[in-house]
Amino acid sequence: MMRTNGTALSLPIVTTFVKLAKDWIGARQRAHIIADALGFGAQDQTRIATAVSEIARNAFEYAGGGKVEFIAETTVPQSLLVRISDEGPGIADLAEILAGRFRSRHGLGIGITGARSLMDEFVVDTVVGKGTTVLLRRYLPRSAQAITPADLGRVAEALTLRPADPLEEAQHYNQDLLRTLDELSRVNRELQAANEAKDFFLATVSHELRTPMTAIIGWLQILAFPGIDDATRDEGLKAIEGAARVQARLVDDVLEAAKVQSRKLQLDVRNIDLRDVIDSTCSAVRPAIAAKSIVFERVVHDGALPIRGDSERLQQVLWNLISNAIKFTPENGTIVVRVCSDDDTATITVTDSGEGIAAELLPHVFERFRQGDNARQHGGLGLGLAIVHHLVELHGGAISAASEGPGKGACFTIRMPLRQ
Known about the structure:
With 420 residues, the protein is α+β, with helices and mostly antiparallel strands. Helices cover 50% and strands 20% of the residues.
């Protein structure tokens, strides 16, 4: 089988025959050595070796033996092609096997379906009564060097150094299985953690959306009473508006997080002055700062701060950081927004004297759904800082967080490249 996307130069590497039980183990051994010599990573080496050994074992068990040919293909992308053929009875139930619906008492079909999942291309050509040929192809990494005849000489040399005893390869096989089990355990732990995070997120969303909705329903019931006075009506309307705004913000956070996850969040990039972004954001948050009697200081060096960016998204970043500082800073506390620059970088810091960040949480503050106990008391979904982190990176910048611990405040630092 040759690919149709170019003329493949096929360079034969080695051909081995499977006549005895130990030979399919030897085929696995050769596959491992060849994959290593051609530049495949450790995981790909194991995938290739396992797929080859499974099909070679099938050839031995069901056809009495066969032939395994290893071929290097130099068409971009380069690949390793393995052709395993036999002259046995063929596979009568191939369609059922490939569909995963057939299991014989001997286990026929497990090797085929498993090997197919390990390779980039997998083709079975079988004729009942005349034999079977299986083609397995795995593409080399794009970073791999071009395969040359000299490389094949080194492969041949590596094959001559292989262990003479196939039992040694069986030991390597067991080691590969152990590494695979470790990898599966790690992936399983990650999936379990992701599932727990999902459950926590759904519970948090339900709680956070229910809270303003309860306030809205409650005030609507109060306002429905006849003869209600103007002061109560005004209070109720303001409470309903505030609750609706909270709900809108929560929904916006969820939608923004979904865009971040799907990489669909877009920027409207223009030439802007970062000072204008800082001025407009600080003006927007001043009422909230005044309501808590927080001492607010803004320190911005003279001179323009020209950057390429999305003005609205950068305001969103600063608004989120300053709003968090307001949320976690007690009355009469302090918040300082400081901006400075050098030849090619603008640095913005938002420092507060608030509740601080625990040491164990600090490395995870920009992860989705990660909140400390004090953050949950203030509400929110734990999405804001994750969105901020993504927006800053989209602008080619970097953001970091620092805190000396609970009760000692926090400092967020953004570094943005200036427009030259």
